[in-house]
Structures are given as C-alpha cells and as structure tokens.
Amino acid sequence: MATFEKPSVRTANPNFSSGPCAKRPGWTPAALSDAPLGRSHRAPIGKAKLQASIDLTREILQVPADYRIGIVPASDTGAVEMAMWSLLGARGVDMVAWESFGETWVTDVQKQLKLSDARIIKAPYGELPDLNGIDFDRDVVFTWNGTTSGVRVPNGDFIPADRQGLTICDATSAAFAQRLDWPKLDVITFSWQKVLGGEAAHGMLILSPRAVERLESYAPAWPMPKIFRLTNNGKLIEGIFVGDTINTPSMLCNEDYLDALHWAKSIGSLDGLMARADANLKAIADWAERTDWVDFLARDPATRSNTSVCLRIVDPAVKALSEEKQAAFAKKVAALLEKEGVAYDIDSYRDAPSGLRIWCGATVETSDVKALTSWLDWAFAVAKAEI
Questions:
Q1: Domain ranges in the chain?
Q2: Threshold 0.90, pTM exceeds
Q3: Are 87 and 139 in contact, with CB atoms under 8 Å apart?
Q4: Number of alpha carbons in the 13 Å side-chain half-sphere of residue 186
Q5: pLDDT per residue over 269-279, tens digit each?
Q6: What percent of the chain has a predicted confidence (pLDDT) above 70?
Q7: Nearest 5 degrees, angle CA 211-CA 224-CA 42?
Q8: Are 348 and 354 contacting, i.e. CB atoms less than 8 angstroms apart?
Q9: Among 133, 139, 158, 148, which residue's Cα sits nearest to residue 103?
Q10: Chain segment 46-57, per-residue pLDDT in tens
Q11: CATH of domain 41-265
Q12: Which one is the CATH code of 269-384: 3.90.1150.10, 3.30.230.70, 3.10.450.50, 3.40.50.970?
C-alpha cells in the first residue's frame, strides 16, 4: 500500500456525530454537580430546575410569550409523535418529506394513524420538494432541517400568515443553529442531544395558541396512550408547560441541558450559536470549493444545512464503482479517520446516499473542522490507492 503523509494538526475534539452531538467546549462531568439526584422531580427543587430549562429555552430561542414550552418523553421522536397523534385528523394533511425522518412521519400517518386524506409531497435526497405545492388550508408536517440529507428550508417565507391549517415542524437539528420563523409555526419539536450536545431521551414540544385551540376543540378518533395525552376533559394540561412532566425526567440530563443553555447565553445566545454553526459550514464549503473529489449532497447552496453537513464523493474513479462499492469506499474513509482518532461517526446515515456526514453545530470548534478537512484529504487518498 502506498504511504501518504498524515496532516500535522489533529482535531482537539474528534466528535462529529450527528446525534448525540459533541458537548460544549470545556465540558466536564463537574458541570452536573448541582443536579438534584435522588430527589423527586415533583419536589420544589426538581420543578424549579425543569422550569428553568423551559425559561432559558424561551429566552435563547426567542420563543413568543404566548407559545407554551413543554418537556416531553422520548426525544424529538416522542414530541413529533405526540403532536401528530393529538392534532391530526381534524382536516386533511400535507406530509412534506425529503429525507429519512420526514419519511418516518409519512409512514406513521399512512400506516399507523391511517389518515384517509393525506397528501405526500416528496423530493429525493439533496433537494427540497416544491414548497409552492403545499396547501396550507390543510395541516402540514415537515422538517425544518433534514438531518440525514443536509438540506434545510432557507426560511419560513413559503408559509402564509393567514393559513387555515396547523404547521407541525420537526426542528430538532435546526433549533439553536437556525432562526425559526415562530409566527409561521404552530408546533415545534426538538431534542437536547443535537445543537447543544445534551443528553438523549427528552424532547421539547412548543405549541402556538392556534395549536392549543385545536387541542381543546378536537378529539382524535383513536385511543391516546398516556404519554401522548396533552388534554384532560377537553382542556390543555397546563402543568406540562411549567415543568410538571408527563413521566419521570432525568434530573441529571436536565442539569446537562441547563449547563448547555447557560453556555449558549454566555456566547451571545441564538446569534452566537448561529455564528458558530455558520463558521463551521463555511470551513467545509471553502474546502469543498477547492477539492475536486467531494461535493455537497444539497445541490442548492441556499438550502445547505449548517449543522448536519452531508457530502458525496464525486471523484470519477469512485463514481465508476458499483453503488455497493461506492458505499464501502465512503465507509473506508470514515473508518480510517476513526482509527486515527481524529473523527468519529462521520459516515452517512444508513438510509441516505453513500457519503460523509459531518456535524457542524455550535458545540463544534471551527478549528477542529478546518483540521478535519486535511485529514479527509488524507483518508481519501489512502482509500483511493486501494481501488
């Protein structure tokens, strides 16, 4: 095998996973020392900690005062499912999908809820569907940022202010890195383990007044599991949105989320978080511009994610291989970097086209992204020499 000189600068933090994502710079377990372990989450100290997470979330994300914020079970997936099972069925729904998680919500509507009036609006990986084809007199379910495709909506301009239906937005890899257009969104979900690098298993559910009105005026035809119930006798369970959670949350995980929120506030809140993610995307884009073997999966620069950056290998010798061998080549590149300890978990999502996926959210340092690009060139050269 030919030998290639390894880059002289290593990444200080090799964690580029798209979930769970890298911890904030400087994080140590000592950040969790104030967690009220062994205490009830319903005790005053527990409820105060949970309320603090809700309050800081509102402040940093600039959530309108009349939107409710709740901590719910089962990560972003649980929050999305809770919204769909509780709200859909009152009118027709447009399901908008261009990557794996959007496809999951389509499957749930078609095969689990079995809604008879559901339109599916899709696009292949790397593209957005025709957003002008969405009917906002119907309910609409969509992802703001496609975690497995690296394609995001550029803004909320495609959503009319005078819509009749509800917009249900899976924003898990967009929240804290992209500016969400709150007046255009009725349900927003995300999880702690994405942009802020928190721990898994907890989701956030944010409801507009229009969503609350739907909850209190419409009862779905299907049975509702306990962990999905947002109303009692036709009224919103307000306690969910002041820290009185549906099930038992981890106070250790909540403490970790609080730590990340305080860090976010210390670097300029949403503006500071977005600036860090944008700088990381720019580092990848500058490298890709001068590198002939790689390109973005997202074809339109305006739709490229600044968190889950998905890349495809476009070198002619690699493209000449079978799809199976192209996938093996990309995995070889990722494996070489993992073996060197400079990048972990950067192969593409299992259902996505073969390639690489590099998390560039706000907890990742731009210096590490820049160092990684040299290692990517090294790993590509080594893998190509073995074709």
A1: 41-265, 269-384
A2: yes
A3: yes
A4: 27
A5: 999 999 999 99
A6: 99
A7: 80
A8: yes
A9: 148
A10: 999 999 999 999
A11: 3.40.640.10
A12: 3.90.1150.10
